[in-house]
Amino acid sequence: MPAESSVGPASAVLAYIGALPEPKRATLLEMRRLILEILPEAEECLSYGMPAFRVDAKVIAGFAAFKAHLGYFPHSGTVLEHLPEVVAAYPSTRGGLRFGVDSPLPRDVVEALIRVRLAEIAAGKRR
Asked: What is the reported pLDDT for 13?
């Protein structure tokens, strides 16, 4: 099984979100709207089984629902180390941030995460 698989465009992302109970559904719909507002050129896909957004065939951002939280994933193991103030404000792992099922990440946080990921890609780093 490949590490990244694209399973349809926006319809697969909407199906993933649509299958969730509230308030997870509304929160991830808001995250989707926000990411697409910041990255209007992004193509929606599923990567690692979660909704993701890619530009020029590189995944920039993704999110997923879990039992007690939601997660944001920059699809890079180094993005978060460049944003210690963001990491300090949320529970995190090396590869993602956790946030509440009823509160999307603030726009400035998402913009910072996307900005760092795009800079990594521009510098030639894949992960």
From this structure: 96
Which regions of 1-127 does DSSP assign to beta strands (E)? 43-47, 50-55, 58-65, 70-73, 92-93, 96-99
Tell me the two tokens of residue 92: 């995190």
127 in a domain, yes or no?
no
Q: 22-26 — which CB contacts under 8 Å span 24+ positions?
A: 23/101, 23/102, 24/65, 24/70, 24/101, 26/102
Is 89 a member of any domain? yes
Helix (H, G, I), strand (E, B) or coil at 61: strand
What is the pLDDT, as a whole number, of residue 10? Answer: 81
Structural domain contains residue 3: no
Return the pLDDT at 94: 87
Mean pLDDT per block of 10 residues along the chain (127 residues) reads 48 96 98 97 95 96 97 96 94 94 97 97 76
pTM: 0.89
Asked whether 101 and 23 are in contact (CB, 8 A), the reply is yes
Domains held by the chain: number: 1
Which domain does 99 fall in, by range? 10-122
Which helix H or strand E contains 68, and what residues bound it? Answer: none
